[in-house]
User: What shape does this take?
Amino acid sequence: MNKKMTSLLLAATFSSGLLMAQSITEDFKPSRFNQPGQAYPQVNSQGYARFRVHAPAADSVKVSLGLGGRGGTVLTKGTDGFFSGTTEGPMDEGFHYYNLTVNGGRFNDPGALNFFGSTRWESGIEIPAHDQDFYALKDVPHGQVSQILFPSKSTQTSRRAYVYTPPGYSKDLNSRYPVLYLQHGWGEDETAWTNQGLAHLIMDNLIAEGKIKPFIIVMTYGMTNEIKWGRIRDFKIDSFETVLVKELIPYIDAHFRTKADQPHRAMAGLSMGGMETKMVTLANPNVFSHYALLSGGTYAPADIKDKSKVKLIFLSCGSKENPEGVKKAADELKAAGFNSVSYVSPNTAHEFQTWRRSLKELAPLLFTK
Amino acid sequence: MNKKMTSLLLAATFSSGLLMAQSITEDFKPSRFNQPGQAYPQVNSQGYARFRVHAPAADSVKVSLGLGGRGGTVLTKGTDGFFSGTTEGPMDEGFHYYNLTVNGGRFNDPGALNFFGSTRWESGIEIPAHDQDFYALKDVPHGQVSQILFPSKSTQTSRRAYVYTPPGYSKDLNSRYPVLYLQHGWGEDETAWTNQGLAHLIMDNLIAEGKIKPFIIVMTYGMTNEIKWGRIRDFKIDSFETVLVKELIPYIDAHFRTKADQPHRAMAGLSMGGMETKMVTLANPNVFSHYALLSGGTYAPADIKDKSKVKLIFLSCGSKENPEGVKKAADELKAAGFNSVSYVSPNTAHEFQTWRRSLKELAPLLFTK
Assistant: This one.
């Protein structure tokens, strides 16, 4: 759907609330990311979300999610003490953060699991996607997601990272694997790529289908230097770069069976993690060979001093972001002799469905040479 | 402190609120389990907890935690839109679940991390304990906590477990390790022993101090059969026993470097997990050799058919539970020729500080022969 058509549809939506309400398909089911046994929030096959929250003495409950993820949804109080309501329209496929405002205070929805975003644990909801099969939990061999605590002299603490090791890693003790260092976005942390992104299931499924050769993924916290959480204007790359390159990578190479060299090391990041990826890869051409920015900017040919050290540049975003910019940058890199690939996620914005799909597209391109 | 003295102190506390308020030490600090950067909730050196919640249009905010973990604390609304208040008295050392009631609706505290208990994700707070050093995050070699997804034919899904592997596991690929299967309590899940219990840090510290020989810990969900979450009256051991003994143990032995025999396999559980441990160990004498019930009942000598198969029986509880019952059962087992040990956690009740301490006492007794 192009932008003009989207605008026309939105106009129609807003001018015919009654018609729209009648057209909602009543096949609502609990969201994939609900707390165990919780019936609400629910989602339907069209992408609508429906909420139901118990707050008998409250005057107002509002959900931060609305049409297309924007605005909000005001819930209506029933005589049973529950507030309920449905989004005004369908939302983008995939994962969305949200919260409730209850009489002016911001709380999470007791029905939903929590996910770390915007520097806090927020409620999350999953809108079923037409392509959700690639991140479904299937009866295939599963890898492990291991929490490690690695020593960091530069920050004087033990820092946490998660390491995805593919199925087979624990069985064939002679195999060594390439490594992708994969960064979250602003306000998120090292839990995001598995909790929200389901990166481990994406990998398990790609490996089971024989679409990729197994590799390790390492995820750590990327907002290392901030004094006060979440102040991106204070962000400096130095402290994160030190933790990643001088501390984490040596720890990983010492504690996991990696192929510990530049040709077998990739870095990727979403949003702010893309900015970090660009800065760290350009400053460390002998450490990483494969670069990927997911909704996280672009490289220009002039950025890279030694073309021979770069095996892949992958640039992606959602169709509702800046697809032309991403495609143009990839084209210019290709014209300059780089192995560059662009990917645009259909009908998604700056959100995790874009990044899940990006990982699925990126993975088969890594470490193939 | 005996029960009589506790009662006297409680009476004094209730009759002299003003005196008590004056005696609160103003050394409040954010709880260890706060969300990143959040100033509240706070705890002081005496065990008081102080809360501060933004809800400008709310009429009432109550915290479920009160004196000694009982009752609740009603917060007072300030002109700045924040509700605040301090518990009426000090609470037991260690971890406590809690939630907020905001105008009649139950929500979590936006300042605190969430922990799975009572079949839902709840807020958690940590009261500093005099012995908190044994579960502190220290600059010692750390093991890994790995999430695995193992196939379960009996329940027709992939099930989740967490596996603690000790420091060194990933380096010396020739070593094999004994395994402790460690169960949570009612309404908790496989995340409890690390999130609330900090079992991985307890192990890392014990190993660093040379107090135990390294072993693996496996934690999975123990309320396998329930149709509706949290209905303990519907609990049957069969489905959990099948998952544990027929599916999980073979998977662990195939995917981790275990000593895969009865002498090197232990089972322990807290509360409901103790009940499960008792039932599963008695029904599977050729699978487990070391048994531990933490606030989870006792064994009688007559329960055990073949004494020679049991290497250790460990029974524990908090001093505010049933210490005499636990000690008496251990004595009777000892008199009957069993290697039995009892442990009573001082000044704690049916709560995680009891179980953290129990794990610390249990670990050095495991797999020593």
